[in-house]
Amino acid sequence: MLGVIEPRQLLLAVLRGHGQIMLQNHAGTGLLFLAGIAWGGWDMALGALLATLSATLLAYRLGWDNQRIEQGLYGFSAALTGVALVLFFPPSIGLWLLLPVAGCLAALIQHLGLQRGWPLYTLPFILVTWLCLWLGSSWLPTAVALPQQAIAGMALSGFGQVILQNSTLSGLLFFIGVWLAAPLAALYALAASLLAGWLMLQLGTDADAVAWGLLGYNAVLCAIVFAGPAGEDGLWVLLSVLAALLVGQMFLHAGLTALTFPFVAGSWLVLWLRRLVAA
Question: Does domain 151-278 have CATH number 1.10.3430.10?
């Protein structure tokens, strides 16, 4: 019941919801992620908190699985949605009313996937954000300003862009957050971000886009999903990163907002390949 939720229990679930953005069931990771978001803008951090809190309270209210709630599995897509809507839409009362609704919708989609055993990853965030962008396109700002970054910082920038942050410091906080919970996954992700940036530079992609991490964040998520101690894990990471880059380029050339869909598509492809090989 909603009335008997302990404040500490709710706080940990919300923080873990932020940590699960990069698949980490760790409240400390979520706190570092929130700090990194706040460094980019307090309004984005507040948007993430509001959306995640709304999604978590909805999950408790509807009596969904307590273990999944406490692991933050209903919060991470909501958190991403909160950051994205604050970033893409101009500030207004309507925006702050939309955030809890969008967070709850993301949680409902996530619940559907969890009940059926579907690996949705960040798909709820993608679908809800696409819907909001489509419905509210007439109120969007003309562009999102992106500061200049050094090419040398592109690996950390890839971490930052997972949660739509341009700051290298935010990326560093996100990297430390993942390292806190899963050091091997953090190293794999850092290498994947570097690889993605290098490959895109070789293909003649705009250097500023690479430096901002705009082409590396999907690679970061792919690496975290498939990172592991076995030698074959490196192969799955590589295949998922290449698939994500290919899907991302297709969206780019079509002039579409990809968000983290290349990561989801690349991960689905590799999951299918692994089942095929196992069979």
Answer: yes
